[in-house]
Amino acid sequence: MVKVEVKGTTSQEVDEVLMTANEVALHQREAGETGLLVVRGITLLNRGENPVCSGGQVDAFLPWDISTWELIPRAFSVARPGLIRNQPESG
Questions:
Q1: Contact status, residue 6 vs residue 34, Cβ threshold 8 Å
Q2: Is residue 91's pLDDT more than 60?
Q3: Which pTM was predicted?
Q4: % the chain with pLDDT above 70
Q5: Are 18 and 48 in contact (CB under 8 A)?
Q6: pLDDT tens across 11-57, in order?
Q7: Considering only CA atoms, which of 43, 46, 32 is closest in space to residue 8?
Q8: DSSP β-bridge partners for residue 12
Q9: Which runs of consecutive H residues, i.e. helices, occur in 1-91?
Q10: Alpha carbons 31 and 37: distance in angstroms, whole number
Q11: Mean per-residue pLDDT over the chain, rounded
């Protein structure tokens, strides 16, 4: 079974996509055995509560090795003291 990440955008050109830490970890763990599909140029016909989309072009990277792409940190989770979970053990 091949795991494929699918991302979509209304932009015509896509140089980067956003992924969660868990998505990146999965693709790093299974590098070269996963895929990435980017659907670009999607037209949004309805942006409301029930969005409707049309069209788009697919850029397929199959197989995909995330290590050949640049990882750019874009966000941090900022937690109040005492609420931090899953901290690495020191020592």
A1: no
A2: no
A3: 0.78
A4: 90
A5: no
A6: 999 999 999 999 999 999 999 999 999 999 999 999 889 999 999 99
A7: 43
A8: none
A9: 21-29
A10: 15
A11: 91
**pLDDT, tens digit (0-9, with 9 covering 90-100), for 52-83:** 999 999 999 999 999 999 999 999 888 888 76
Token pair listed for 24: 């990146």
Q: What b/e string do you get for 16-47 counting C-beta neighbours within 10 Å, with b at 16 or more?
A: eeebeeebeebbeeeeeebebebbbeeeeeee
Tell me how far CA of residue 71 lies from CA of 19, 22, 67, in angstroms. Answer: 10, 13, 8
Which of these, 72, 79, 37, 44, lies nearest to 58 by C-alpha position? 37
Tokens standing for 51? Answer: 């969005």
Hey, is 79 helix, strand or coil?
A: coil
How much of the chain is helix, strand and coil, in % rounded to 5? Answer: 15, 30, 55
